[in-house]
Amino acid sequence: MADDTDPTAPAGAGSTSVRRAASAFAERFAPYVPALIGSCIVGWLATRGILARTGEPAAPLDDSFIHLQYARRLAEGHFFSYVAGEGYTSGATSPLWPVLLAPFHALGLRGVSLLDAAWALGTLAHAAVAVETYRLAERLAGRAAAAGAALMCLLFGAFAWFAWSGMETVPFAWALMRAARVSADFAEPAKAPSGARRPTEGGLLAMAMIGPLLRPEGVICSVVVAIALAVRPRNGSSWRRLLALAALVGPLLVPLVHLAFTGHAASSTTSVKWLAANPYYPGPQLWASIGANVRLLFGSLLDGSEWTAVFLPEHFALPLLLGVFALPLAAHRRKAPYHALFVAAVALGTLIPCSYLSFLWNRVRYIWPFAGAWFVLIACFAREAGDLARLARPRLTFVPALLTGLVAGALAMKLSWALSDLAQSSHAIQRQQVALGRWAAENLPDDARIGVNDTGAIAYLSGRRTFDVVGLTTEGEARYWVAGAGSRFEHYEKLARERLPTHFIVYPQWMACSPVLGKQLFEATVTDQSILGGATMVVHEARWDTLGTGALPAAPPAGLTLVDEVDVADLESEAGHGYDLAGGFDQDNQVVEVGKEVDWEGTIKRSGVADGGRVHRHHDRFTAHLPAGKAVQMVMRGGSEDDVTLTVAVEGHEIGTIAIPAGAWVEPSITLPAGVAAASTALTITVLGEGDPRFHSFHYWFYAAPP
């Protein structure tokens, strides 16, 4: 038998090398052991509670199943395609999370069992964020306060809730704290934290890429890495500054992929959830809404009131505020300005969700990834308070540990409630979206295409193609969801029939588009919940017989030719005519069906005429494209809740009035004299009357004599 031993090596060299490697490994990972033990205990409590309620792995958010669906498609060889037969979609806000889950599907985890993998990764992330929080706090506040900050992470109900939710929240929290810590250690090197290696340029660049791949807010990771690389050039050279620019590529990765595959850089989630992308929040309204969210954040959410009481103790904002004042003092006293700067950067990231349409969704999940920085702030306050106490009584060395322990204890008192809510919410999702996905798998044909407004579990468990009416996972639909139900109906009129759903599984009040909802087949009602979008989600056959029924007036003018039309709520028609939204909102964008007959069982006996429009209008302004020198007859489809009179003005000159009686829509007409019509004619329709009169606007047609 051949002997591969190096004859020149000293005796025992091989075993010594192994021992050294084992010792280095143990030293590096020793700090994770207590954190991992704590995380496993909390994880056991969390998953035991879920399994006791559901009898199988379950998730408290339908969004968790969106990640699982993307992971399955990746494992099957399809690059971020959400359903079979369709290409790339820009709906994955955390591309790295399904990438991490996909190998487990490839290894055989199917159905809800794939949540076991998400739970395992969540357990590791829960421990890792505690370790990184400790390391970051240690430089600023010392070991005792840092240990308290790590304990806060382990006992924080929101971290526990989301670590075992199947979501990317806690892995992203780890990425934020890791990026801040390694960047700070690199910018101002000192003795490395226990078990931590000296950060390298490669390690920093990795975090600059990982952060944005876990969440768009991960731009913070890229920025702090870029700063760290820029402020510490090597031997006066500029190569690290070039690396700093490379770090800023991180936030561009996902938008560039979107651009390559879809032709637009913004994700569908951005279109749906970001205030700046919403057409109903221009200028002053945008800043007013962001300001209102900021006030809600500081006045309620961070103080453990109402929306966050399940996770935060009452008046939590007080120690957090004290930590804000303590941070610069800690940075000055311990000569660690970049540690403080990067902690502040992560903490200020809490403000980013204030720019979202709502950040109250899903147990306020958008603010929790930044909580690790909050705990560092509190640790800084505890250390400064302890040092102040020692000036009076030198024996009071325990104050930092006491203060951070008190905060950790206050968080721990919420942990049981948070874990109970996690189990209850998982049970609610199981009895609604999961149940409906399984019902669809058993009862709908293989070629069914299901219209959904919660697209996760139904797509993942039904095995059927889905049509996401919200537009998160069906490319091109987001702008119509944001606009409102009337615009979606108008959009459906233009889609090829094979692209439209054969069935809907929706919350009818969310869908708000009854003319496309046909016979009811099934429903899932869950009343003992606080996480679902509604108590009842309903399965309908799709109904498309109303499409196009409102394309023309009931009685077009005889002998005249249609020369232009403004189809209100049709986004393309509105854009082509410069239609002024005039302060409207999506709730005012509706679809109405007139003339429908329904029997006592709810069966439709006769379809009516359906049209999308905008309701509760003060005025309409748009530009019509009319033949010059001809009299034009304008037919308007409009309605009102009260009798109103409208004035019609062309280019600022009033030409007459239109009466709209209360009730269903009517289709009055008015003649635009030959002298006022031009190739581009600006019209204004305004309500007359005292008080706050409103009208409902659906359609304008313009007819002229044929050439």
Short characterization:
The chain is α+β, with helices and mostly antiparallel strands and 707 residues long. It is built from 23 helices and 18 strands.
Distance between the termini: 102 Å
Shape descriptor = elongated
User: Compute the gyration radius: what is it?
Assistant: 30 Å
So how many helices? 23
Q: Count the E strands.
A: 18
Helix content: 40-55%
Q: How many structural domains are formed by the residues?
A: 3
Main sheet?
Answer: 7 strands, antiparallel
Mean pLDDT: 92
Percent of residues in β-strands: 15-25%
Give the structural class.
alpha+beta
Low-confidence stretches: 1-9
What does this structure look like?
49% of the residues are buried. The chain folds into 3 domains: 129-424, no CATH class; 428-542, no CATH class; 561-704, Jelly Rolls. It is an alpha+beta fold. The chain is built from 23 helices and 18 strands. Strands 6, 7, 10, 12, 15, 16 and 18 form a 7-stranded antiparallel beta sheet that branches. Residues 1-9 have low confidence and may be disordered. The termini are far apart. Helix 3 packs across helix 4, helix 9 (219-231) packs antiparallel against helix 15 and helix 15 (337-348) crosses helix 17. 47% of the residues lie in helices and 16% in strands.
